[in-house]
Amino acid sequence: MEKENQNGKKEHAFVSFVVNEAEYKTLTNKMYETRKPYEPKNPNLLRAFMPGNIPEMSKKKGDLVKEGDKLLILEAMKMKNLILAPFDGKIKSVNVKVGDKVSKNHVLVEVTPQKVKK
Amino acid sequence: MSIKKKTLDLKKRMQGALMGGGEKAIEKQQSLGKMTARERIVALLDPNSFHEYDLFVEHAARDFDMDKKTLPGDGVITGTGTISGFPVCIYAQDFTVAGGSLGIMHARKISKIMDHAMNLKIPIIGINDSGGARIQEGVNSLAGYGEIFYRNTLASGVIPQISVILGPCAGGAVYSPALTDFVFVVDKISKMFITGPEVIKSVLGEEITMEELGGARVHSEVTGNAHFYAESEQECLQQIKKLVTYIPWNNSKKADPFPKKAPKTRQFKIDDIIPTDPREPYDVRDVIRAVSDDSEFFEVQELFAANMVVGFGRINGETVGFVANQPMVLAGVLDVDSSDKAARFIRFCDAFNVPLVTLVDLPGYLPGIDQEHAGVIRHGAKILYSYSEATVPKITIILRKAYGGGYIAMCSRHLRADFVFAWPTAEIAVMGPEGAANIIFRNEIKKAEDPEKVRSQKVEEYKKKFANPYVAAAHGYIDAVIEPGETRKFVVHALEVSREKAEIRPEKKHGVPPF
Q1: What ipTM was estimated for this complex?
Q2: Distance from B440 to chain A by nearest Cα, in Å?
């Protein structure tokens, strides 16, 4: 919150901050500075909703999948979670292999929507 | 046996128990820069005021060869004492005895002293320094925690509850402090978390140090779990001694009055603190010091959500709770954290008969996707709820900006402030002049040859007409426009005349605040 000026005297490092179109001179805090920028969700990217590991893979790159098909298992918090295809499509890429440990939000599989016959 | 012999026997037994975990364990505790549980109690309480109970309680673990072990006092010291004459019940977990781990008898001792505090109607202070549940006692130690949480909840709003974290406080143990009114932490000594770094690493693969995960600084600055941060145990104990001077014994009393003292007006010149340009920052704590007795202000949660300032001071000897927007940090906006911080403090003051003095200077709510998604609606509602619910005397002073929802939230007349005063610098309006002019005169600005010129003209027009306290005064929404120099006089008088304040509220079991 403080920085030294040329004379070695401590002064506040005010920044400009806009609320309802008015500009205020103020300091910021840690929570504000470290907030994460928003990213819109891409439905094609299937991410790990929890950190965990991958004990089983059922599909590979290029496979066609129907909505509800089992893609892989994400084991997290002592629970084997089935990761299913959210819609009909083709597996564009697979970013994990059996035995991998993944962190939260790691992209597991990318699916591109496509019509798939029965 | 003669009485002398019996007394000698007692002394011998006591001596054994008073040594806690023994010399080696005590040495280890001290080598970590920590005081022992007994030293802490002695340092906190008035000399010779501590009276200990349940010294001879024995632990109840029978499995895993635990029956062959003795654990003096079962790892916790309980008793009563005074702090500058102020009576308290106190317990301190003794890390030198089985790591301060909580077994059923340890928990029963804590429960018993809490029951005491409730019956005697005096505050309870808990000093936490424990490795957590005593695994050998299995579900019994969980039962012990549950009994403590239940009592914390019953005691909430009846007697002040103070938690002091002077060591690890992990897993279920964190929830007793979380349920209490004030949590004290010390740099490098306090550690609070639900799951520790090792578990996080093995389960999730994320690496973090204990200090970064749940150190004193983190809980004071980021999570808001702690209310008071100190560099050393000594400083921490001084903070506790100071806090108890501001609070009452229980919810049917007021805090003990202090001798009246004038503010240090030479140091805090109330006329010179606030820049008249509403966009310029200043430290609102200087305004508090310019009106409080002896210019003293005891700030609560100083490091957390610094855009809102809360804490205790005195006006003519009587404790008041100050709640103020801080224009120096994030322009003083309301956001998720500052709303939580203020709401909790307001509810403490209301529960314990501490009048509220609110100083208003804010541009509104913090804009941003992260705020909206973090639930600023639900969190912001807590301020409205707690101010509306509060029946203690409520005095509001609008220093400068009071725009939109922020104006309503900061203890406005509409939420039943008893007195609302405004300085001549106040700007009470539905929104800031810049935003308002852009909306009202949108078409004129758009059509103009020189839109920027028209815009600034319209902003000026709006400012002149609405950015003042007189529109609100004309509606009776504020009671008086006062000179800054008269602030203390008005607050003193308002407190004097509201001593017998009584508000009848609809009967209910309890409200459903937006937790």
Answers
A1: 0.77
A2: 14
